[in-house]
Design brief:
This protein has 466 residues and is an alpha/beta fold. The protein has 17 helices and 18 strands. The strands form three sheets. A seven-stranded mixed beta sheet has the order 8-7-9-6-10-11-12, with helices on both faces. A six-stranded mixed beta sheet has the order 13-14-18-15-16-17. Strands 3-2-1-4-5 form a five-stranded parallel beta sheet, sandwiched between helices. The longest helix has 16 residues.
Length: 466
């Protein structure tokens, strides 16, 4: 199975096009790369490192963003809109699977015989002659990648890194460092994580996802086994995770398994899931040769990543957070963290489902996980890829909830705000969950400020499920 956009190559990094570009980079020669969809979270980070390493970068995207401004400041030429004339004659053309197969720049590159690389191929080029640490897993890989990168910086290693989210401590999702180590977030959604030359592999957990690509749970887990097998030096796997443990035997003596080990450290990010992420990061750091005591201290420096339970503000005693949760397990972990932060307060969740296929397959689990909130709204689906499915919408989830009065469907963020704000009391917590564009937290904060006096949760006298 594959996404509806341009599919990734079967063996990126080993095609003639990739090998030709690799030889240029290995010889110290700069190359010219054109990125189709350059402003995306993953693409912009790769393009940034290309620029910082002295290569020429052009690219295009549908809309201007902060990423475009940052890349232009580094010397990139960014076109708004896609057109064949933007292509030029680069050494390589880099694409992401999210672009449609009829993209005019992609078609022109193929017509002219230009080397066309999936973004994973392009990132693989940057890993040559580096100690590559690849972080993958169903959940937590963005945070764990950031943890490892920030800790290595504090340990003096000055690594390069490319992450799927902005690292708070650095203010960017990517950077080219002077050290030998290179930390990357390795995306499993289309098996492109198999394309990297990996020295140390870190698997946070394995929990079936991406039903639009994988035929089933076995195929999904097999991909992780292959990922673990390919690591040259070490594999870090959480044996407490039922899925991750299945990847351990293939790693044999190279595996660094963490299972219930006790290491005391005070993290700056909440949630039991982040404790697991930190233990895994610690195992990676020790596998790279750093002493445990120094590694533990370095992990305390990590302050989080954007849109991973990111605090967006407070109004009238109600705290608002943004999170990237788009899988039932992630929703549950996020709401558990929100519950810990809220204390005696209540938790209001607003979820934007991601893709029709995922919504249909995991509808029952989404409904169950939202039960960890006191009130929940499920808005219309954000379909970044895949084919819309008739009859699959927000009500596909809400109709399965055991709490129909508290878990409701709505048409958009603002409708959820209109219905949700009157329910909130001082001390409550709101979590906006989406893997699409940044949820409009400022609009919610403004609505709270204009809502008049807000009672405390104790004063409201409302009966809520838990």
């Amino acid at each position: 199975m594959s996404h509806s956009g341009v599919a990734s190559a079967a063996a990126p990094g080993r095609t003639p096009a990739a090998q030709a570009a690799l030889r240029l980079i290995q010889s110290g020669q700069p190359i010219a790369a054109h990125f189709i969809g350059i402003c995306g979270a993953g693409m912009s980070g790769i393009a940034k490192v290309f620029l910082q390493q002295g290569h020429t970068v052009t690219g295009s995207d549908l809309a201007r963003s902060g990423a475009a401004a940052e890349l232009e400041a580094l010397g990139a030429v960014v076109h708004i809109g896609h057109a064949a004339k933007h292509l030029g004659r680069p050494h390589v053309v880099v694409f992401t699977g999210a672009i449609p197969s009829g993209n005019p720049e992609y078609l022109r590159a193929q017509q002219e015989g230009l080397p066309v690389l999936h973004r994973s191929q392009a990132l693989a080029l940057l890993l040559c002659n580096r100690t590559a640490v690849a972080v993958s897993g169903s959940h937590g890989k963005t945070t764990s990648t950031a943890m490892v990168a920030v800790a290595l910086r504090h340990l003096g290693a000055d690594p390069s890194f490319v992450n799927g989210g902005v690292v708070m401590d650095v203010g960017s999702s990517a950077a080219s460092g002077s050290g030998r180590m290179f930390v990357i977030e390795a995306d499993e959604s289309d098996k492109s994580f198999l394309n990297y030359p990996v020295d140390v592999a870190f698997i946070t957990n394995v929990d079936f996802d991406h039903p639009d690509f994988f035929s089933g749970r076995d195929a999904y887990e097999d991909a992780f086994v292959e990922f673990a097998t390919a690591a040259r030096d070490a594999v870090v796997i959480c044996l407490d995770d039922p899925g991750g443990g299945g990847s351990a035997p293939v790693a044999a003596s190279a595996a660094v398994c963490f299972a219930g080990q006790e290491h005391k450290v005070r993290l700056r990010v909440p949630g039991r899931h982040n404790a697991y992420n930190a233990v895994g990061a610690l195992a990676v750091l020790t596998a790279l040769g750093f002493p445990i005591a120094a590694a533990l201290e370095a992990l305390t420096a990590f302050s989080g990543t954007q849109r991973r339970f990111e605090f967006k503000g407070e109004a009238r005693g109600v705290r608002v957070y943004s999170d990237y949760a788009h899988h039932p397990t992630e929703v549950r972990c996020t709401l558990q963290a929100a519950r810990a932060v809220a204390g005696a307060g209540h938790v209001l969740a607003i979820l934007e489902p991601h893709m029709h296929c995922r919504t249909r397959v995991f509808a029952e689990a989404f409904a169950e996980s939202l039960g960890d909130s006191d009130y929940a709204f499920v808005k219309d689906i954000f379909a970044s890829r895949g084919t819309p499915e008739e009859g699959v919408d927000s009500s596909t989830i809400t109709s399965r909830s055991r709490f129909p009065d508290q878990v409701r469907a709505c048409c958009g963020w603002h409708e959820a705000f209109e219905q949700g704000v009157p329910l909130l009391r001082e001390g409550d917590v709101v979590v906006l969950m989406s893997a699409g564009p940044e949820p409009p937290a400022p609009a919610l904060l403004s609505a709270l400020k204009l809502s008049g006096s807000i009672e405390t949760s104790e004063e409201s006298g409302q009966t809520l499920h838990s």
